[in-house]
Amino acid sequence: xxxxxxxxxxxxxxxxxxxxxxxxxxxxxxxxxxxxxxxxxxxxxxxxxxxxxxxxxxxxxxxxxxxxxxxxxxxxxxxxxxxxxxxxxxxxxxxxxxxxxxxxxxxxxxxxxxxxxxxxxxxxxxxxxxxxxxxxxxxxxxxxxxxxxxxxxxxxxxxxxxxxxxxxxxxxxxxxxxxx
Length: 180
Prior knowledge:
This protein is of the alpha/beta class and 180 residues long. The chain contains nine helices and five strands, in the order βααβααβααβαβαα.
């Protein structure tokens, strides 16, 4: 079943870097490739800002570069000016518990900024950053509504979710992680 509404999805370069070709043997490479393919097949859009483009140009696998080219030709790139959320970053810094958390969040903050300006959905394998943002979300309410999807976590049932429209589900938000 294809989705009737296309979502604007922010895709962390760690997914692009890990995605393997159709001959990939590592599970992580297969899952990252399959999520990108599912996004394409279900007509969702990829959020594209200048900082995200910079990351993808440097760190993408061959498969991810080809996939992105297909997305572009199909008109499925949501190109936008990068939203700068300096006040949000200041709040995060104020409530961050460790320098490791801050470092982890700083490198993924470009994706969080873009997600907050679109459909609030971030696809990332980075569980360290997810945990750090989850800790900050206890005090920084803006973060709580972000959907954080890890294609390598089998319990996320991500492929079914993507094919059904990638709808907003409270159980996939950082807020639901705050309660654990």
